[in-house]
Structures are given as C-alpha cells and as structure tokens.
Amino acid sequence: xxxxxxxxGGTNIVAxxxxxxxxxIATSKTPTSAPRTADEIFDDIAMxxxxxxxxxxxxxxxxxxxxxxxxxxxxxxxxxxxxxxLGFNNVPAKHMLTERLGIERVFIENDANCAALGEAxxxxxxxxxxxxxVTLGTGVGSGIIVDGKIVNGVNFAGGECGHMVIxxxxxxxxxxxxxxxxxxxxxxxxxRQTKMAMEEYPDSxxxxxxxxxxKVSGRTAFDAMRKGDIAGIKVVDQYIKxxxxxxxxxxxxxxxxxxxxxxxxxxxxxxLMKPLRRFVQAERxxxxxxxxxxxxxxxxxxxxxxxxxxxxxxxxx
Amino acid sequence: xxxxxxxxGGTNIVAxxxxxxxxxIATSKTPTSAPRTADEIFDDIAMxxxxxxxxxxxxxxxxxxxxxxxxxxxxxxxxxxxxxxLGFNNVPAKHMLTERLGIERVFIENDANCAALGEAxxxxxxxxxxxxxVTLGTGVGSGIIVDGKIVNGVNFAGGECGHMVIxxxxxxxxxxxxxxxxxxxxxxxxxRQTKMAMEEYPDSxxxxxxxxxxKVSGRTAFDAMRKGDIAGIKVVDQYIKxxxxxxxxxxxxxxxxxxxxxxxxxxxxxxLMKPLRRFVQAERxxxxxxxxxxxxxxxxxxxxxxxxxxxxxxxxx
Lengths: 317, 317
Hints:
Radius of gyration of chain A: 21 Å
Structural class of chain A: alpha/beta
Strand content of chain A: 15-25%
Largest interface: A-B, 52 and 52 residues
Distance between the termini of chain A: 16 Å
Order of helices and strands of chain A: EEEHEEEEHEHEEEHHHHHEHEH
Oligomer: homodimer
Number of strands of chain A: 13
Strand order of the largest sheet of chain A: 3-2-1-4-8
C-alpha cells in the first residue's frame, strides 16, 4: 500500500506518495501563497495530493492513509488550533482533507514532529524507537520520539526543546523567556555572536568574509576559523559549547538512542559534529554506561517532513 | 491478586504487599547495613518480603509479581549495573530475587522511577499517562512517565532532569558539570544560598533562626521570609525562580499532564507551589493552549517507592 505525505509550509505545499518502505514515489508542489482562506489553501493541498497520486501512476484507491505536517499546534481531533504564519485559528484540517480526498484515515501533526518521525523511521534513525531530532535553523526546533511515538504531551505542544533555558536571565528569546537554548544555538544566535565578535575584533578575517558575501551568515565564523582566525575560532568554540549544552540536557533527561541534528548549520558536517560528540561524551551524567546516545547529522533534508507525515497513519493507530 | 513492592535504600530495605487497587496491605523492613555482600543483602530482601506476605495473611501463591526499586542504573535484564552507595557492580538482582522467592515475574527499576510510577498511578497522578515526578532533596531527582511507561532511554539512565544545565558555566554540580538544575534547586543548594545571604546580611533574622535550630536548613530562609525578613524573602524568591526554571523547561519539552514535586522542601506547601505555578503559567511556551500542565505536591511520601515498585509488573509487560 501507499500513503500520501503532505508538508504544509509557510512558502510551499508539498505532497508526496510514499511506499511502505518509506520511498518517495512521486511529488507535486505549489506555492502556499499565504495569507489565504483555509478553504483555498486546502483546495490546493487536495490538488497537489491528487497530482502526486497521478504522477505515481496510482489512483486514490491505492492510498491507505494521508498525513500532513503543519506549523503550529494540532489537537487530537486534527484541528489546527493556532498557526501564526498561516493565519490559521481552529482550522478543522483532518475534516477538510477527508472531505476533499475521500479518504477516512487522515492524520495531522506539527511539522517539526513529522520531520523527527521521518528521520527516526526512514532516515538516520533507521527505526530507532527513542529518538530526538533537533534543527538548528532560524530557531531551534525539535521533535521527541519515545517508544516509537511522538511525544505530544497533554496539549499537543510538546517537543519544544529549543525553549529550555540554559542561561537563567540570559539572552532575550523570541518566545518571551530569557536564556532559551534557541537564543544561543540557533543560526540567528550564531550570527548575533559573530557580529559581536566582529565589533570586538576589527582586524578579524570575518570582516573580509562578510564583505565578500555581502552579509554576516551562519558560515562566516566557521569559514574564518578554517583560516585560523582567532576571533572566528572563539565564536565557533563558544557556539558549539552552547549547542552541546542543550544536547547533554536532552541526553540526561531522555537518553535517546540517537539525537539527529539538522538545519543549515549542519552543512558544516564533522567540523560541527566531532566537537559536539566530544562535549556530550565528557559531560553526560551516564558516563559509566556502555551504551550511549549517538549524535548524528540528519540525512533526509526537506524530505523528512513529507516522509514523516506519510508514516503518521502507521504510528498513530 | 497481590504484588510485592520493595524499596532497597541506602539505609533501609522496605517490602510491602500491595493489592490491585494500589493499597498497601502489610509492610516489613530491616536496615540495609551497607556495605555488605549482595548475597547478604538479598537474603534480607527475601526475608522482609516473606514477612510482609505473612503479615498480610497471605502466601507466596497469592503473589503475582515482585518489583524492586534500587539506587543506581538497572539494565533490561534486571542487573544492577552500578549503585555507588550500595557498592554494587553488575549485581543480577532479578535472578537473585527469583531464586530466593520462587517467583518468575520479578522487575527491577531505578528508585526515582519507581517513586514517579507510584505517584502517577496511585498518588496525585490519579492514573495520568504523561507525568513527571521531581524530588527536591539532597539532590534533584526525577522520573519521567510517557504514555504510562517509564522513560528509561537506551541505557536505562534516563530521567536525570536534575542534571539539565540551567546556567552555562554556573555553580559546580556533584555530577562534574557546572550549572545543573540540582546545583540551584536542591535542598543542598538552598542551604548554600541561605548561608551566602546570611554572610551578606549580618542583621538578618536568619541568624537567630539558625542559632535556635543549631544549623542552617532548607527551612531557615522560608521561616525568615514568613517573619518579613528582607534577606529571607530574597533567598526564597531566587530559589523559587530556579526551581520554576527547570519546571518550565520540562513543560516546554514534554507538556506532561502533571508535574508532581516531592522532597523535604515540599513541606512548605502552597508557600512554594503557588509562586511556582505563577512562574510556569507566565513563562511556558504553550501560553495559548487551553490545557496546561498541572503543578502539584506529591502525596504518597515514602510509600511512592514501594507502591511504584509493586506496579512494575503491570506496566512493564
């Protein structure tokens, strides 16, 4: 059998047909063009879903279930309670998809949780039952899998590990709290840390890199570090320490089999992963245990979301 | 049917017969007298277990399963891999109990996890499936229940939420890391914070309280606060903020139905719980959700451990 995985994003709607071995058979997409009414957006979701099924050479009769990842909070009835960047308030997503696609088995879930599920089952997790996915992007996103299932919590708002405070009274976070992991370990935070170091070190090579690129990015300090620039090395060392701090917190609390790290910063590859593993190894509470959490780079990229959404039907029931 | 719950502590071995409604029918106990050989200790564990069964007016044939909570790390084969205060290294606890009691269904688990299970099923949790128990004692202990089961993680060392860093490069923790929640929110930390404030405020009422009691305790600052002592108020306010910080981290990551707080500091009751709830309410990420984590005081006290141990047989299989 096949399922449809949908990633409803702020920019694009992507639908893929996925087989029972987690392979993407066919994909179709269209711009989200938010803000629009939920009805308009769901008409387009149904359209790309049907297109993907056609491209796969299948009909709706071959589809066992439909899963969709969306920004925001989704409750147990498949209602999107609140999704700021889509302008959604209490949108009955499950009902609207069932109606449009004629399929009963429809599952709606937060997009970060779908991505975690995709990596856990079909990506670097290789079926790991206890798994955490962390994304170092504009913010720090995360999804927690325990015993093969997404940890939604009592109000379906679980898994917000980016908003664990690692510095009481620290940097202001976008969520209103001070000192969240996100305020130290996101790409946004790294850029802020890079700019501060550039002010402090006017001779740093980071200035030349930023000028050549036309901006300070999440790569600026890493590139300078590779040239042996002292200020660049300092920024990267401190940033990695902040990322590691949150990872060790997760290890101590949950001891997952695998923590996978995704997002743009991950393109640094082993430059990032090696020192992270060293920190976690040295500082975890379970220092005497033979078995330890593996820290690995995410491997599915943007496909994690649609694959995870397609899997929802098999893990949620 | 009945089960036996055992709490193997550094000081005492307690065994209780528990019925299927989580009532304790009879209890027997004996000093642990560690360090002794594992064989000697397990002979006593078997003895108190049999005594409790006799006191209950039952025989071993009435016992469906035996559960034991122990300090340290227990693996899936029921082997206590490491328990520092008992001097245990790779002690095959499940096997040794089965042999001595003639019962096949024996389950061994970390003691903090047993206490969490007891409160979740038989105590203040009232059957909550997503539950965290936090103990503010000498250290900060915790146990996490997700979907009705203990979160052990890949190496059975999960649930060490006291060792989540809340202040990068902060106070030295006994675990080797700096800035752990335990180093700010334990009774030990509160006593340290109280002593520091007493040095800073030589006229504080805390000096009189400590002199009358013969020592600085976890109550000193709370008692001074109740008398309107400025330094006492400052210590308590800051301490509650630290406790709340870790609680909010747990809420954001797991959104459990209930977080229950136990340990000596909890005797402060609503003096502690009310401001904690206010902090959590104001700072949680899920501020828009209608359903929110309840913050409550533990109610089973020392019984949580034996009841949780007795329940192991019904949740682990």
